[in-house]
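Convert to structure. Protein one:
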Amino acid sequence: MNAKIISFVATKNPAVASRFYAETLGLKLVSDDPFAVVFDANGTMLRVQKVQELTPAKYTVLGWDVLDIAATVEELAKKGVRFERYEGLSQDELGIWTSPAKAKVAWFKDPDGNVLSLTQFRT
């Protein structure tokens, strides 16, 4: 299919999610309607859907390809983002894991518990 991707994540608390995605992650707010808070995620539409019930997935639902994962982790940590640690993964002091293919990955959660990630493919 030759069309742009639209990404989705859900929230039970749109006001808190809106602040997190706009202020903490720095995404540009596009609109807020009864169904979703919409952001421009560097050219990709992110629709933060407003829902009554939410059971967050235990896996990554949204991620970013970053140039310098350590600097990005440190920047987000200063804004209060807590990076996840997973048993069985060898993560460094910042919570960054290096995959067998040498990609570096760090995980964190949004206020609703959705798992988000940062990945640095280039070393």
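Protein two, convert as well:
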Amino acid sequence: MLSSSWRRANFAFVFLVAALLFAAALHSVAAESLSLAIKGYDPVAYFVFGKPTPGLPSIEYEWDEHRYRFSSEEHRELFKADPVRYAPQFAQFCAMALSRGEIVEANPEFWLVIDNNLYIFGKPTGPALFKQNLAENIARANRNRALIPDR
């Protein structure tokens, strides 16, 4: 016959394992519910490689209610150290459209890095148009930042 202290210890162990599994499942569901930033592209790659680079699902980091993907662990660590430096200026929205008061989802293939800031655009013409009147476009897009929907 099992002693009551052994049964209590066994029950506590089973309860602890179940609680840990439940917590891990909740974290996984919460992480999956966060939207994928920049359609899964590595934000650091624009600065390091000078080109859009898809990130890997196995190398992610959660920041500002988004899941960011990276092409390497090193890029993830750079981002973690200074996410504001690497994240796009207007989340996943087109900087040029926002300067016009419009909300358009950006395509990470159309981009600019200006003054160490990443801007992404909805169309291939976006970067050239944005640069034509750069200071004013940046100022207007920043004024219209309030139009960006809550996540």
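The first helix runs from residue 4 to 33. The two ends are 57 Å apart (CA to CA).
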